[in-house]
Amino acid sequence: MKKVLIILLCLASTGLWAQSTEFGIKGGLNYGSTGDIDGFQDAVDDFPDITEGESKAGYHFGIYTKFGISAVFIQPELVYTKLTTDYGAFEYNLDKIDLPVLLGVDILGPLNIKAGPSFQYITNNEIDNDRFEISDVENDISVGYQLGAGLNLGSLGIDVRYEGAFTENTAFNETASDNFNIDSRPSQWILSLSLAL
Q: 50-65: per-residue pLDDT in tens?
């Protein structure tokens, strides 16, 4: 009898989630930078034109799904992100696949808030200066977080989020006599438009 009740509860809850399932596409701009240079002073001694990382605009696009009960929803996404950081002597370019899994709540009419972990898989990282050569990052996959707010206007959605890191994910410079490393995990603001299909 207990097994039957558990199965019925699972089926009932699955039906409730399925009643408000949404799928769509999304894209937009992101503004931020990767992390600090480890060994920055040594790098400045060797290369005086190196600076702390400055934020630049990038872009992202991908797909999402959203399902929930009443005002509470879960929103997983699969997004390609391009980000560039200016370190004076060079620009550090990062391409990654993001998989945020966000828990959200509709709080007032079309307005919602959401937060959750964001898994990052780096597909490419490179420096645009022949004097330097960057190696692969320490971990291809790392975990950060996203939090923000959204506005649903029919099938159109607008999101503003902040993405941060729990830990560093080092990319190693292989050319300087006093080696320095770059934290490849970005901190960025994300502005997205989404369209439910």
A: 778 889 999 999 999 9
- Name, in order, each residue with C-beta under 8 angstroms of 59's C-beta and a sequence gap of 6 or more: 27, 28, 29, 30, 81, 82
CA–CA separation, 42 vs 178, rounded Å? 6
Q: Which whole number is the average pLDDT over 32-40?
A: 76
DSSP letters of 57-115? Answer: EEEEEEEEEEEEETTEEEEEEEEEEEEEEE-SS-EEEEEEEEEEEEEEEEEETTEEEEE
d(CA 64, CA 82) in angstroms, rounded, equals 18
- Looking only at the bridges linking them, the beta strands covering 56-69 and 181-183 are unpaired
**Nearest alpha carbon to residue 98 among 85, 73, 125, 117:** 117
